[in-house]
Specification:
The chain has about 475 residues and is α/β, with parallel strands linked by helices. It folds into two domains: about 70-125 and about 145-240 and about 340-475, Phosphoglycerate mutase-like (Rossmann fold, 3-Layer(aba) Sandwich); about 250-340, no CATH class. The protein is about 40% helix and about 10% strand. The chain has helices at about 1-25, 60-70, 130-135, 165-185, 210-220, 250-265, 270-280, 285-290, 295-305, 320-340, 340-365, 380-390, 450-465, 470-475; strands spanning about 85-95, 200-205, 230-235, 310, 315, 370-375, 400-410, 415-425, 425, 445-450. The strands form two sheets. Strands 1, 2, 3, 6, 7, 8, 9 and 10 form an eight-stranded mixed beta sheet that branches. A two-stranded antiparallel sheet has the order 4-5. The radius of gyration is 24 Å and the shape is globular. It starts with a helix and ends with a helix. This is 2-phosphoxylose phosphatase 1.
C-alpha cells in the first residue's frame, strides 16, 4: 500500500510538471539537446519561469532588478547552439551600454555617491578588470574615427559624472565578452588566431559609456586585444541610421507615440498624486519634478543599494518607486496595443537591419571581412529593433543587454544559410514576425536567411500598410 501511494504521488507530480512546462510561455527557454538529424523536439520552445525568484505577475521591484542586471546573478545562455553539421559563419552583436550614473538629477537633493574609478578588489569583481584598466591606460594612441579619440577609454572619477559608466557597467560587459569568447571563439573558431582588423566591424555612438562598454566587451572577447587592430567607427545617431536618418514619417509616428504616452499618464491619478507628493518633499513644482525624470535617478539608488534621497520635508521611498515603475510597465503594455511605436520602430530600425543583412549576405558568399560586428548603443537603439522584429514581449533593454544575430551554414547543403536571433542569451528566433511559423514546417532549429532578407527588404514596408516598396518612399509618403 505504501509503495502504491508513493507511486501515485510521483505520477501526480510528473503530470503537474508536464502541464506547467507546456503551458507557461516566453523568454525563459529550457536549453535542450538538438537531435543529430538537424532537428530538435518541440520542447526547444518550452519555457519554465524560475518558481523561486520570478513572481506570477508583473512586479515592479522584480522588473527593476532585471533592469539592473546585477553581475552576480548567473543566467543561462543559448548562443552558439546548433546541430553538429552547421558551421558558424558570422555574428552580429547589438549591445546597450552597461550600468551608468543617472542622466538627470532630482531637484534639491544630494546626488547619489557612486565611485566611478575602477578598483580590482572591489565588488563587482571580474578577473580581467585590473588588466583591462592597465591596457586602457596604454591605449591613448588608438585609432578611432573622430570625435571618438577625445573620449576617455575607461571611467575614472571618484564621484561619477552624469551618464558615466560605472564599475558595474564595465564588469557587465567584461562578462558578456568572456561569455561570447567561450562560445564563438573557443568552441566555434569564428576568428582565426591571427585575426585582422577587417574581420571586425565596430561602431559606437559618441558617448563615453558606449565606447567604454564596447571596449570592455572586446577585451573580454578577443584572445589578443591589440590596439593596432581595433578601429571604432562613430555613429552620430542613436538609431544607427548612418546616411539614411532623414525620415519625416518616422518622426510623425514618434510624435503620435509621445502623445499616447502623455495621455496615458494623465489618466493615471495615482501616478499624478505620487509626483505631487515627491514634489512637496523636494519643494519644487510638480511639473519641474516630472521634467527631471526622477525614475532615472531612483533606479541608480535602487541598483546600487543606496537610500533614496531625503529632505527636511520627508523622504522619497519605495512606494513612490513602485508607483512610477508600475506605470512604466503599464505604458509598455499600452504601447504594444496601440502600435504607434511599431510604425516608428519599423522605419527607425530599417537602416541598421539593412546593413546587417548586407554583411550576412557577403559572409554567406564566402567573404571573410566583417564576420564579427559590434554595435555599442543605447536602449533607444535596441528597443526599436526588438519591436521591428516582432518581439513585442521582450523586456525593455536592461543595462548591458545584448541582441545577437548568428549566421550559420549547413555543411550538408553548403548553399543553405540560416539565422538565429538571441536576446540576452535566449533564442527568440521563432518569436520574430518573419519566422514565427517556420518551425511548424521545418525541423531545423533556426530560420532561413532569405526569410530575414525578405522581411527587411519588403515585409517591413508591407507591415506599415502604406503601399510603399522602399525605405525612401515609406519615409516620405503623403497623407500620413
Amino acid at each position: 500500500m505504501l509503495f502504491r501511494n508513493r507511486f501515485l504521488l510521483l505520477l501526480a507530480l510528473a503530470a503537474l510538471l508536464a502541464f506547467l512546462s507546456l503551458s507557461l510561455q516566453f523568454f525563459h527557454l529550457i536549453p535542450v539537446s538538438v537531435a543529430k538529424n538537424g532537428g530538435s523536439s518541440k520542447s526547444r520552445k518550452r519555457i519554465m519561469p524560475d518558481p523561486v525568484t520570478e513572481p506570477p505577475g508583473a512586479d515592479p521591484v522584480y522588473e527593476a532588478l532585471l533592469y539592473c542586471n546585477l553581475p552576480s546573478v548567473a543566467e543561462r545562455s543559448m548562443e552558439g547552439h546548433a546541430p553538429h553539421h552547421f558551421k558558424l559563419v558570422s555574428v552580429h552583436v547589438f549591445i546597450r551600454h552597461g550600468d551608468r550614473y543617472p542622466l538627470y538629477v532630482i531637484p534639491k537633493t544630494k546626488r547619489p555617491e557612486i565611485d566611478c574609478t575602477l578598483v580590482a578588489n572591489r565588488k563587482p569583481y571580474h578577473p580581467k578588470l585590473e588588466a583591462f584598466v592597465g591596457h586602457m591606460s596604454k591605449g591613448s594612441g588608438a585609432s578611432f574615427e573622430s570625435p571618438l579619440h577625445s573620449l576617455p577609454l575607461f571611467p575614472n572619477h571618484p564621484l561619477c559624472e552624469m551618464g558615466e559608466l560605472t564599475q558595474t557597467g564595465v564588469v557587465q560587459h567584461l562578462q558578456n565578452g568572456q561569455l561570447l569568447r567561450d562560445i564563438y571563439l573557443k568552441k566555434h573558431k569564428l576568428l582565426p588566431s591571427d585575426w585582422s582588423t577587417d574581420q571586425l566591424y565596430l561602431e559606437t555612438t559618441g558617448k563615453s559609456r558606449t565606447l567604454q562598454s564596447g571596449l570592455a566587451l572586446l577585451y573580454g572577447f578577443l584572445p589578443d586585444f591589440d590596439w593596432k587592430k581595433i578601429y571604432f567607427r562613430h555613429q552620430p545617431s542613436a538609431l544607427f541610421c548612418s546616411g539614411n536618418c532623414y525620415c519625416p514619417v518616422r518622426n510623425q509616428y514618434l510624435e503620435k507615440e509621445q502623445r499616447r504616452q502623455y495621455l496615458l499618464r494623465l489618466k493615471n491619478s495615482q501616478l499624478e498624486r505620487t509626483y505631487g507628493d515627491m514634489a512637496k518633499i523636494v519643494d519644487v513644482p510638480t511639473k519641474q519634478l516630472r521634467a527631471a525624470n526622477p525614475i532615472d535617478s531612483m533606479l541608480c539608488h535602487f541598483c546600487h543599494n543606496v537610500s533614496f534621497p531625503c529632505t527636511r520635508n520627508g523622504c522619497i521611498d519605495m512606494e513612490h518607486f513602485r508607483v512610477i515603475k508600475t506605470h512604466q510597465i503599464e505604458d509598455e503594455r499600452d504601447r504594444r496595443e496601440k502600435k504607434l511605436y511599431l510604425g516608428y520602430s519599423l522605419l527607425g530600425a530599417h537602416p541598421i537591419l539593412n546593413q546587417t543583412i548586407g554583411r550576412m549576405q557577403r559572409a554567406a558568399e564566402g567573404r571573410k571581412e566583417e564576420i564579427f560586428a559590434l554595435y555599442s548603443a543605447h536602449d533607444v537603439t535596441l528597443s526599436p529593433v526588438l519591436s521591428a522584429l516582432g518581439l513585442m514581449e521582450a523586456k525593455f533593454p536592461r543595462f548591458a543587454a545584448r541582441l545577437i544575430f548568428e549566421l550559420w551554414q549547413d555543411r550538408e547543403q553548403p548553399r543553405e544559410h540560416s539565422v538565429r536571433i538571441l536576446y540576452n542569451g535566449v533564442d527568440v528566433t521563432f518569436h520574430t514576425s518573419f519566422c514565427q511559423d517556420h518551425h511548424k514546417r521545418s525541423p531545423k532549429p533556426m530560420c532561413p536567411l532569405e526569410n530575414l532578407v525578405r522581411f527587411v527588404r519588403r515585409d517591413m514596408f508591407v507591415a506599415l500598410g502604406s503601399g510603399s516598396t522602399s525605405y525612401y518612399d515609406a519615409c516620405h509618403r503623403e497623407g500620413f
